[in-house]
Structure formats: structure tokens, C-alpha cells
Amino acid sequence: MLIHNSFRLNGTKYNRNSLEMDAQQWATSSDEEKQALGHFLLNWLNDNEYIALHTSGSTGKPKEIQMPKTAMYASAVRTAAFFKISNGDSALLCLPIRYIAGKMMLVRALVLGLDLDIVAPKTKLYIEKNYTFTALIPLQANASFDSLGKFKTVIIGGAPIHSELRKRIGKTYSNCIETYGMTETLTHVATRIIADDFKHFKAIPGIGISKDKNDCLVIDVPYVPLSPIVTRDIVNLQSDDTFQLLGRRDWVINSGGIKIFPEVLEKILEPHMKFPFFFTGMPDSELGEKLILLAEAPASKKGIIMGIARQHLGSNKHHIPKKVVCVTAFKYNSTSKLDRIASRKVTKAI
User: Fold this and answer.
1) In whole angstroms, what is the distance from residue 261 CA to residue 253 CA?
2) Over residues 185-201, mean pLDDT
3) Strands (DSSP E) along 227-276, which ranges?
4) What is the pTM of this model?
């Protein structure tokens, strides 16, 4: 597959042969990230037309998919056009290469001819120089907040952005953009202003959006053979290229015939809560499901938490939780996303 003649990796200029030689060494390294780098580069450079990717569950049960390298190339070119990136620009890769966000940062550098630095994918980043472009998860953006100004463009995605971080970024930086995407779409297909949690996402030019009979977002990515891609994200379509994200279909609570979107309530309550929390449903003989607030907090805080919920959600009686359940610690997956199912299991109350 194509390697741009301006491509540099950690300061070294590579051609196909020299990159393949180093990739073979990296693939046998004892360092997990170097191994992932080496294996991906070898897969990119071989004659196979496809690369195996693993989905995270945005469109259903996690699975392996075969993605054409030409689609990954097209995605990189579209990113360059949208964010105004060109050959010779600098980029920082600080995400795990085993996941799609890390893979696509590497592909962009390879095909666009970027000067790419790779650092360990840690939460706290120590940025020593300025860069044109990078991609971060919210945890990194928060821990490395003072360094965000060293980038011309920072895209942030992969997990929900806390309301406090939104406010801080909105007051301090204009170079940070929230993205929406998944493995199946080869990362971002829509963006929005970070400062406003209720602002709609706008599809990147050339990306089509609609919704199915369940109000789930359907994405048409012209260069991806899997299109149209039916997600499990319930949305309101604002126009033919904008949408409001309501929440994952899997988490919707049907309480007495009323559909409750946990993620919408969480956005409202988040600025007022000092403890990690989320809403879930619990079987109920009368309502079918009843709304429960799970909090990572001491049991002695139940009354305070319920009071906060009543104060800020009380305008709709259906949004007031029937019960507050406190747990010692929530569970998170390998990409730092809250594992709602596993977190529910840590308490006998649900």
C-alpha cells in the first residue's frame, strides 16, 4: 500500500523497504505497543487487500470485520481535507495502535506524508513541542489540559466528555473538536463544538445520515463496503446532515410505557454530582422497569444524591429515580468506557 515520500516516524524518514525491515523488528519486541506497531505496518505493507479490524459494539455484538485498505486510505484523505492537514505537517500518536483510533492516526501519517511521533498511550502526556494534529480520549485531554494549546487541531472522542471538561475547554481553547465515529466508519464521520453538550453533531461532507424504524442512526460512508451502517445510537435528526445523540438503544428504559434515555438525564445531572454515577433500569412488576440511579459513593450519601436528582430532574416525574444504589467501584472496559452491564453486577440490588 502507498507510503508517501514525506512520511517520517519519530524523526526518521522511511521508504517501503526500510519501514518493512524495522516493522519486522518491532513485531518481535517485548514492548506491547511496539509489537502492535510492527504487526500493523507489516499488514499494511503486504499484498493483502484487506486488514482485519475488531468492532467495539457500536453496531451490535463485537466482531471481526475485513476492511479494504483502499477504504482506510480514503478515510485518511477525507480527514486531511476536512481538518486542512497536508504532507509535512506534524502529528502525535498517543493512542493504543491495537484500536481503530490509533490505527487510523498511523494510516493518515503513512498516506498523507506526515511527520509522526509515537509516544506511550498514557493518560498524562508530556508534550515537548508543537504539533499540527492529534487525537485524544477525554481522560488524556483532562490530564494533559495545559498542553492542549500545543496542537493546531485536537480531536477528542472514544468516550463521553464530562461537563466540567467541556466548560474548561470552551473557556480556554478553540482548537479542540469532539468527534463521533466507530470502527465500522473508520473513526470520525461527524463533529461538534465541545463547549456545548447539547449541541448537535454535523456530518463531515460526503457522509450521509438517516435513521431506521427504531430511531437508530444509519450512516452512509461511500468508501466503506459495509455501508449503510446501522448503529445502536438513538438520535433526533435536525437536518439532512445534523443529529442530536440521545443515547444507546441498549440502555433505553421503558418505565410504564415511557421511554427514558439514561444518557440524557446523566448530562443534566453531571454538573451537580460529585460522584461517578449512571442511570439504569430494574425490573418492576407494575412499571415493567423502574429508574435506578447507581452511584460510586458511600451508602451514607444516598439521601444527598436523591435530593440532587429531585432538584434537577423534578420537572418531569418520570425522570426522578425510584431508588439510589451506592457501590464501591464501577467497572470500565479496556478503552476506559464505563461498562454498564458489569457495573450493575457489582450490587445485589439489581
Assistant:
1) 7
2) 88
3) 229-237, 242-248, 253-255, 258-260
4) 0.86
252-344 matches 8-248 in CATH topology: no
CB 138 within 8 A of CB 162: yes
Cβ(80)–Cβ(107) below 8 Å = no
Higher pLDDT pick, 199 / 249 = 249
Nearest to 273 by CA among 164, 138, 159: 164
Return the C-alpha cell found at 78. Answer: 477525507
Per the listing, cell 499494511 goes with 44
Task: State residue 348's pLDDT score.
Answer: 53
DSSP secondary structure letters along 110-126: HHHT-EEEE----SS--
Q: How confident is the model at residue 338 (pLDDT cuts 50, 70, 90)?
A: confident
Quick check: 321 and 327 in contact, CB under 8 A?
no
β-strand pairing of 115-118 with 8-9: parallel
Predicted pLDDT at 160:
85
For the segment(s) 8-248, the CATH number from 2.40.30.10, 3.40.630.10, 3.10.420.10, 3.40.50.12780 is 3.40.50.12780
Cis link prior to 271 (omega < 30° from 0)?
no
Q: Determine the average pLDDT of the residues in 120-131.
A: 94
d(CA 246, CA 248): 7
* For residue 108, pLDDT beyond 90: yes
pLDDT in the model for residue 57: 63
1 Cβ contact partners less than 8 Å away, ≥ 6 residues apart: 44, 45, 69, 73, 110, 111
Which residue did the predictor score with more confidence, 60 or 83? 83
Q: CA-to-CA distance for 236 and 302, rounded, in angstroms?
A: 33
Contacts of 281 (CB under 8 A, 6+ apart): 253, 254, 255, 260, 289, 290, 291, 292
Q: What is the CA radius of gyration of the chain?
A: 22
Topology (CATH) of 252-344: GMP Synthetase; Chain A, domain 3 (3.30.300)
> Are the C-beta atoms of residues 106 and 116 closer than 8 Å to each other?
yes
Nearest alpha carbon to residue 132 among 110, 111, 117: 117
